[in-house]
Amino acid sequence: MLEERILFVDAEAIAIDKPAGLPVDAPRRGGDSVAVRLDELKLGFQRQPVPVHRLDQDTSGCLLLARNPKAMKRFGQAFERGEVEKVYLAVVDGELVEPEGLIDLPLRKMSSEAEGWRMVGHHRGQEARTRWRRLTVSRGRTLVEFQPLTGRTHQLRVHAREGLGLPIVGDPVYGRGSGPMMLHALRLLVPREPKPAIDVLAPLPPHFPDWALDAA
Fold this sequence. Notes:
- The protein has helices at 69-80, 155-163, 210-215, and strands at 6-9, 13-18, 50-51, 60-66, 85-92, 100-104, 107-112, 116-121, 129-138, 141-148, 183-192, 195-201.
- By secondary structure, the protein is mainly β.
- The chain has one domain (2-215): Pseudouridine synthase.
């Protein structure tokens, strides 16, 4: 039940720890999603909450939902203005040598009949910037903290592969795709003056390796 995964709730907002494998929007082919389970998050309100942003299906962690149209507008504007702080943890397939950096790689959507669509680094793409920091290295892999400064589709997944040269472990599109994808939305901080900011942390899921859980 999504109600059991609530990290924060008040009259304006609900933040949940979205499980990996559950899409936010209802898939065209049908099936489970946050969108079809919103009644679980009404919590006595007549109106269903509405997701303010999106996480990829295979990404776990902090997801914010607005409980009324006024809050939806204000939170949406905060995301658009880049005022929301987001921190992700990922395990990448290889050992990073540098301790930290900034990836500045514009992204563009490409598609083909054979492979479908995906995002790629392209000089004519939309601006996309990500700060990153190496946390620990173990068994030929690296736990990385990502802070996206923009919010492009698949940004962290492409920046890991093309910016760092190391795909996220388990990524079915930009990596080898074996096992669950090791990308987790750890923290979300949303300003909302004059009220206190919404600041939530989602614990790392158990499918992350033990050494990453210990280091996080």
